[in-house]
Amino acid sequence: MRAVTRIQVAVVGAGPVGAVAAYFLAQQGIDVVVLEAASSCEEDMRASTFHAPTLDMLSQLGIADRLINEGLIAPVYQYRIRSTQEILKFDLTELEDELKFPFRLQYEQSKLTRSLTDDLCGKLVAILNDGADQHELLDQYDRQRRTIMNEFIQSQTIRNKILMEESSELALQNKWEEMRRINADDELRHDFMRQQSMLQSLKDEARII
What we know:
Elements: E1 9-12, H1 16-27, E2 32-35, E3 49-50, H2 52-60, H3 64-70, E4 72-74, E5 76-81, E6 86-91, E7 104-106, H4 109-126, H5 134-165, H6 169-184, H7 186-196, H8 199-206
Parallel strand pairs: 1-2
Antiparallel strand pairs: 3-7, 4-7, 5-6
Helix pairs in contact: 1-4, 5-8, 6-7
């Protein structure tokens, strides 16, 4: 094993985000060291849903097929109105002309992390930088994805907080009436699914130079 005298990027934590980030940087030929206090991957990670843009990104890393083969594909998701027992269905296959992966994938993130870290053990030793420009990659991330993802997460967090704190029966009825209207209209339903699958966020990101 070669001694590494200079490291360009240190990733703190070998969880799903840290493992994917390190894997991507290693593929770009950038020196990466991953710092993790635990001796093994956590087994009880709660998150297990992968959305279409995430699968798109993992596909570019060459690992999406592995997850899809082992996971559960869910093209349809539902909103349930408990007061009336109604079920509003949203089928992502309606956006198959726009989405490479028109479904959500259920796959434990602990499995993703373990798989990536096993691969990284070889990659991080084998790949030592010979000129890759990490600044250009990180600047692009700052301009594009971080900006748009922060906007998406903040808007969703605020929306969910308002819904959770809403106690007015009339307001809840209005919310579900709006969901019925969206679900019944093809154009509104497709726009809603674009927002929820973060497809619109990716389109907004691509406009940022």
